[in-house]
Amino acid sequence: MKGQLLALLQSGAYISGEEMSRKLGVSRTAVWKQLSALREQGYELESAPKKGYRLLSSPDTLLAHDIEAHLQTKTLGRNIHSYDSVASTQPLAHEEAAREAREGTLIVANEQQGARGRLGRQWQSTKGTSLSMSLLLRPDISVNQAPQLTLLAAVAVTRAIEAVSGLVCDIKWPNDILYGGKKLVGILTEMAADPDRVNYCIVGIGINCNQESNDFAETLAGIATSIKLETGNPVQRAKLVAAVMNEFEWLYDEYIKNGFAAIRPLWEARSVSLHTKLSARTPSRIVQGYSLGITDDGRLRIQDEDGQEHLIYSADIELDN
């Protein structure tokens, strides 16, 4: 009920207790109790005789109702598990999947202490300033289509960041989102599958939201950034989570109905990994050449200096600047 109550207050205009009671189908006493609980959480509410209540400011918390207040989805993010501190949201999402949790279940954490990105690399997640989440999906797709979900997620996240903060970000194949050449977001997609079909996928997303320069480790200085560092303003993380879910849902619906062809031009429009010279480092080799584009299943096409085309499934990319 708190999420529905907050949704009614989002306009910033006064709304009476009687109107809230009527719209939510509960007593005015129940509304008053929930408003009191929101005040204790840190929501600043103003009340005025004959006018009602209005929302003045919101805490930067990541409880389920904080996010639900901004959701416009039917499925994604409608079953939220929120944690203050975890080792990683990914295994928690896998546990929910094993319990037959419904599609759209979302694990959100205020801090990750043992987060890992692609190839097992450490992902720094600072308490209270970063955003870590894992989304459970159950698409009816083949195993070789699963990497497309990482590309779809990148489109959803870049659109959400732009909507909430105004930043227009770049996508670096296969799973990074950059601003000004610095890493802002990492995406990690994992799956459980039979030989021919995917049982479920977990899309993990880590976003640098409100870090200051000194919040990053020395090894990340100069290569990582945050939304606050780039805009000068903090971002409300619950609102950003909801924006990602809102964007993700319509893109995912379009993908399920019409395939990756519907998503591909949106990804290509924001990519810095296309039609440029680069090198791709895989566990077994380094491929240098010109990026021709991506295949329908999301692999990167690189043409080397001898004219031979290489299809890269996963690699570390270095752009030739």
From TrEMBL:
DNA-binding region: 17-36
Enzyme class: ligase
Entries under CDD domains matching the protein: BPL, HTH_ARSR
Pfam families in UniProt: BPL_C (PF02237), BPL_LplA_LipB (PF03099), HTH_11 (PF08279)
Chemical reaction(s) catalysed: biotin + L-lysyl-[protein] + ATP = N(6)-biotinyl-L-lysyl-[protein] + AMP + diphosphate + H(+)
GO cellular component: cytoplasm
Record field: transmembrane: none
Domain of life of the organism encoding this protein: Bacteria
Tagged with keyword Repressor: yes
Keywords: ATP-binding, Biotin, DNA-binding, Ligase, Nucleotide-binding, Repressor, Transcription, Transcription regulation
GO biological process, one term: protein lipoylation
Domain BPL/LPL catalytic: 56-256
Claim: Transcription is one of the keywords in the record: yes
Family of this protein: Belongs to the biotin--protein ligase family.
Summary of the function given for this chain in its UniProt record: Acts both as a biotin--[acetyl-CoA-carboxylase] ligase and a repressor.
This protein's name: Bifunctional ligase/repressor BirA
Source organism per UniProt: Shouchella clausii
